[in-house]
Amino acid sequence: MATINDNYLKLKAGYLFPEIARRVNAFAQANPDAKIIKLGIGDVTEPLPQACRTAMIKAVEEMGDRTSFRGYGPEQGYTWLLEKIAAQDFQARGCEVDASEIFISDGSKCDTGNILDIFGDNNIIAVTDPVYPVYVDTNVMAGHTGPANDQGEFEGLVYLPITAQNNFTAEIPSQKVDLIYLCFPNNPTGAVATKEHLKAWVDYAKANSSIIFFDAAYEAYITDAELPHSIYEIEGARECAIEFRSFSKNAGFTGTRCAFTVVPKTLTAKAADGSDVELWKLWNRRHSTKFNGVSYIVQRGAEAVYSEEGRAQIQELISFYLENARIIREKLTAAGLAVYGGVNAPYVWVQTPNGLSSWDFFDKLLHTCNVVVTPGSGFGAAGEGYFRISAFNSRENVEEAMKRITDRLTS
Ligand code: MLT
C-alpha cells in the first residue's frame, strides 16, 4: 500500500497566502460589487521593464530560427548572465563571488526550500519569529520538526523573536544552532540589518560552524548607502553563508521566474564520517539532477537588468514601490497606528489597533474597507497583533486603500 510523507500532516491549515485567497474569494463571492484592493501578498503590479521585454522578444525570435535555436542550456545558468551578476551585484560591492559560485533558478522560494536537500536531518535550525513561512514549512515537510503547539510553533525549531524592542533584528542566540535563516530587508517586518549586526551573525556562525541562509530577495530596496546588500560584504561570510537573490521584486519577474543562489566554494559542512564536504559540490549535483535550468528567453530578460537602460528602468520601479511604502507609512502613522519598516523595504509592518488579533483585524479590514493585508500571526506567534502591508500595487490603489482605512477604520 502506498504511504504518504506524514510530516505534511503536521503543517498548519494551509500555506498563508492560499488561506488569505480563500477568505478573499469567499468575501468577493458574497459581495460581488466590492472593489477589493489587495495589499496582501507581495506580488508586483507594474509592467516588466522595456529592456527586459526587448531582450526576451529578441530571444524568442532566435528560438524561431534553426541557426540560433537553443535546447537545454547549462543547468547552472548561461555564463553571460552569471558573469554579469558576479560583476555587478557582488564584485562591484567588494564581494568576492565568482560566476561559477552562482546558480540560476526559477525562484528564491524554491531555492530556500530545496537547499535542505543537501543538509542532514539532525541540524538544529533557527528561524526568526515572525518569519517568511516557507522556511518553517519546508523544514516541517522534510521531517526536521515535531508537531506544532497551539501558537503554531513547531517542536524542535529554535525561534528567535524579532520585536520592536530589538528593531525586528534577531539577537544572537545563546545556544548553539547549525542552520540559521536570515532575511534582510526583512519579510515581513521591513527591518534592515546593519553591517555590525550581520558581522555578529557571521562571527557566531564561524565560531559554531553554522551555516547562514541569507535571503536577500529585497536587497534592491536598500537606499541607505551604509546598509549591506549582500552578506558577502561581511568578512568571513564566504565560510558560513549561502545567499538567495531574486529578479522578482527588483525587475517584476514574479510571473516570469528567475532567481539565483550563491554557494561559495569555500563553504563546507560535516559528513557522517566527520570529514568536511564542499557544499558547492553537493548543490551543483542537486541542481544538475533535479533542475534543467531557467529558459533561455527568461535568462536573456534577466541579463537585460544589468544593461545601462535596464538598471535605470529597474531603479524607477523600485522608487515607485518605495514611494508607495512612504505613503502607507505616513498615512497610517497620521492615523495613529504604530508603523515599522517600509523605508529600505517594500513591506510595512503595523500594530493592529485596539489590541485586535491579526486575523480579526484582517477580517475587519476586508469587510469594512475591502482592503486585503497579511495577518502578522500568519508569519509566526510573535507576529500576533500585527499586520503587514505590501507596497506592491498601483499608486491609485495604494492611495485609495489608505483613504478607506483612514476614513472608515481609524477616524
Ligand atoms: C510575500 O508576500 O511574502 C511574498 O510574495 C512571498 C514570495 O515572494 O514568495
Describe this structure in words.
The structure is a single chain. By secondary structure, the protein is of the alpha/beta class. It folds into two domains: 7-47 and 309-409, Aspartate Aminotransferase, domain 1, CATH 3.90.1150; 52-307, Aspartate Aminotransferase, domain 2. It has twelve helices and 15 strands. It has helices at 16-30, 50-63, 79-90, 108-114, 133-141, 195-208, 248-251, 279-290, 296-303, 308-334, 358-369, 395-409, and strands spanning 37-38, 102-105, 125-129, 157-161, 179-183, 211-215, 241-246, 259-262, 268-270, 276-278, 339-341, 347-351, 371-372, 374-375, 386-390. The strands form four sheets. Strands 2-8-7-6-5-3-4 form a seven-stranded mixed beta sheet, with helices on both faces. Helix 3 (79-90) packs parallel to helix 9 (296-303). The longest helix has 27 residues, at 308-334. It is globular, with a radius of gyration of 21 Å. The model has no long low-confidence stretch (mean pLDDT 96). The structure holds D-malate.
Classify the secondary structure makeup into a structural class: alpha/beta
Q: Looking at CATH, which topology of the largest domain would you report?
A: Aspartate Aminotransferase, domain 2
User: Could you tell me how far the N terminus lies from the C terminus, measured between alpha carbons in angstroms?
Assistant: 61 Å
Strand composition percent = 5-15%
The helicity comes to 25-40%
Instruction: State the name of the first-level CATH class of the largest domain.
Output: Alpha Beta
